Amino acid sequence: MTKTAVRAVALAACAVLSVAAAPKGAAPRKGLPATSTNWGATTAVTANGSHRLGNPEAPLKLVEYVSYTCPHCAHFVKEADPVLRLTMVPKGQISVTVTNFLRNPIDLTVAMLTNCGDPKRFFVRHNAFFAAQDKWLAKAEATNREQQQRWYQGDFPARMRAISSDLGFYDQTAAWGLSRVQTDQCLSDAAALDRIKGQQTDVQALGLTGTPSFTLNGELLDGHDWASVSKAITDKQAQQRAGNI
Q: Would you call 173 helix, strand, or coil by DSSP?
């Protein structure tokens, strides 16, 4: 695969970008979150191996279907994080679940590494890979044909070790305190591999063709960027408030 093809793989499947608290002293209205608990550090692994951040009973439940090689996904995280993870999630207004959308071997490798270690630290690893995406995608473009052939041949652990070596992922995991041996153990985790591959059943069931894609309270959203997701959240909040008047 040529350098141009690598960039095409990274972009082809990406979609084109185009709360109020109850009055003081009043009992919370049904369907609105309590504000006394900080849900910003509450995490859980769902039945299909996805990772959820926030109040599991939040009135709004956003599921993000992301590809780590999708630049639009990285852009979404950069725009949405200050509002979602740092504002709405801590207040219990919304929970955010990340599900992997695999498009190529690099996606799989990064997904295995974000699942490596303490599940409570998943979102730290998730954000770190997106923050550094420009750097490691540039390394992918600079690889030669012989290197790329190793990404598509052999068993999955061997292919992911080759990708990790070529794209500098071992340096990233070392920053988290993981040795190369420990990282390789994560890349050889058959149970984690099955969970991540199993998530593609949900992707296919929804008929998703681009990343990032989203569902809000189980409904597939038309938009693929923060502006459209933000509007959907605002509209849903308005509907919930109206339903509780």
A: helix
